[in-house]
Amino acid sequence: MRLRGGVEHWDEVYLRFRRPGGFEQPGPWTFAGYHSHLARHFYTKHELIRFGSKPFLLVTSEDQEAGVGWRGVIQHWFDLTAAKLEPVFGLSVETSDSGVPNRIALHSSGSVVSLESTPVERITVACEVTFEYPFPAWPDNLGSRSAEAVYTRRGGEFVFDATLSKTRKIEIDKFCSFNTEQRPSNEDLLRYTLPQLEKLAAGANGERKEWLKGFLAQCGNTPEKREIQAILSRPMPKGK
User: Fold this and answer.
1) Tens digit of pLDDT for each residue in 24-47?
2) pLDDT tens-digit readout, 90-122
């Protein structure tokens, strides 16, 4: 059961009720815990799924960091057979960073590839990250990367499994999760988009090259930065 209330209806509460013999068995329902979070004015939705033989509640909500252009759509998973009604897994369904004014923007989307219930519970997640100019007038992007991670149930929650994942946890945390404290640095963005930025630096689009210079000014003195600056300093061929 879901309830909404409180100041300006920002509080959202999920109530759990159980039957002694299980959901599909006869018998009285008894209260078995609740979960409460701050929904604010952004949308939330929920659904029930079967994970193996277990019922799971999935709650999806949108959140934003005001003033920093950082938004995300997060999905929390609740094992309805667990003793406590607390999230056991979190999936970043969507993450966006506007990049304004001089950063590189990014957009990532995450989805569940597979669920395994035996011999242990595992969730495999795929993530696609697109790097973009921070201006809507520039429709083409700065490349993309794919990532895949596996989360294995250990005790009361699913944790990143480094032995089965194709992508390192540090990259998943930076590019595929809604977390402003772990967001990628300018140096990270420069390294991941280096081939596209090299082409931009060698091209003839003056507006984009001026943007690139502004972005480089915010980056540390890395080999990638020096490489692009060297390209920018080259004289343009005659006729360009």
Assistant:
1) 677 788 777 777 766 554 567 889
2) 999 998 887 776 788 889 999 999 999 999 999
The burial class, CB within 10 Å (0-12 / 13-18 / 19+), for 25 is exposed
Going edge to edge, which strands form the sheet with 54-65? 44-51, 54-65, 70-79, 87-97, 105-116, 122-132, 141-154, 157-160
Sequence-distant (6+) residues with CB within 8 A of 205 are: none
What is the total residue count of the chain? 240
Collapsing DSSP to helix, strand or coil, 62 comes out as strand
Host domain of residue 158: 44-182
Same domain assignment for residues 57 and 170: yes
| d(C-alpha 159, C-alpha 122), whole Å | 9
Q: How many domains are there within the chain?
A: 3
Closest CA to 57 of 91, 85, 83: 85
Question: Which residue reads 């809604």 in tokens?
Answer: 178
Q: Are 94 and 73 in contact (CB under 8 A)?
A: yes
Question: 19 and 51, same structural domain?
Answer: no
Phi-psi region for residue 239, left (φ > 0), alpha (ψ -120 to 50) or beta? left
